[in-house]
Amino acid sequence: QNQDLSQSYSLSPIGEIQSPFNEKFGIPRQPGLCNAAVGSIKLLGECNSDEAVKDLSLHSHIWILFLFHQNLKQGWKPSVRPPRLGGNEKMGVLATRSPFRPNGIGMSAVKLLGVRKSGKQWFIDVKGLDLLDGTPVVDIKPYIPYSDNIPDAQSELADTAPVNSLDVKFTSQAKNQLEALSEKAEQYPKLALLIEQVLQQDPRPSYKQNKADDKIYGILLYNLNIRWQVTNNQCDVLEIASSQ
Ligand code: SAM
């Protein structure tokens, strides 16, 4: 029967993302591009239970369905300008993975590292995240290779992963700061590799890419402010300092 399609539905988060990314600048465009981006889903409500997580570890990868919560207030438009096209060409929002969408829903397939309980709290540990810390998770599903993996699928827009366009080098000051932080490996897992993988993707706006640039940039990973500069196609990591 023809439903009243103007009806709205409410969603309650079942979990919250814990990720190294505390700002959108620098987050990879898709999951799996930075496998050093390790994090967790802290389960909430009735999903924070032995029953709900049972057998999840039978799967190597999971789908995370989430809300682009930081964009919800800004709303969405039917056409967008994908960064991959230099931010000039317009495309229909449904033809893209734009983070500004009709209901703000995102989906990322990530590697499952494990399911862990600490006290009464369940965590699902994952790697290859492309999500902000604090992102609300509305569902988790197992990645099912026989149906989710479509080898002959094609896309004229995004057939290949974005290339790593920058060669990343750490200055001696940054190396010394990494050394000092290595005592806190628990708090900053895979820090050097994460900085390298994020900066290799050249987070700068497309019109600046592949160009030298005298600007010094800052990127927030965990609670660390990483300062860097691009000269030719080399990215020099200048400083790694606690942002508090
Ligand atoms: N893989 C997901 C998808 O296809 O639905 C996300 C793709 S989207 C291009 C990834 C970008 O979303 C990130 O680079 C970041 O800029 C943005 N993002 C991540 N978490 C967000 C959040 N909680 N709110 C708003 N934007 C977010």
From TrEMBL:
Ranges of residues in domain TsaA-like: 11-152
* Keyword S-adenosyl-L-methionine carried by entry: yes
Write out the coiled-coil annotation as residue ranges. none
> Which biological processes are named by the entry's GO terms?
methylation
Q: Which Pfam families match?
A: TrmO_C (PF18389), TrmO_N (PF01980)
UniProt-listed InterPro entries: TrmO-like_N, TrmO_C, YaeB-like, YaeB-like_sf, YaeB_N_sf
The GO terms this record gives for MF are:
tRNA (L-threonylcarbamoyladenosine(37)-C2) methyltransferase activity
Q: Which family does it belong to?
A: Belongs to the tRNA methyltransferase O family.
UniProt-recorded name of the protein: tRNA (N6-threonylcarbamoyladenosine(37)-N6)-methyltransferase TrmO
Q: What's the source species' lineage?
A: Bacteria, Pseudomonadati, Pseudomonadota, Gammaproteobacteria, Alteromonadales
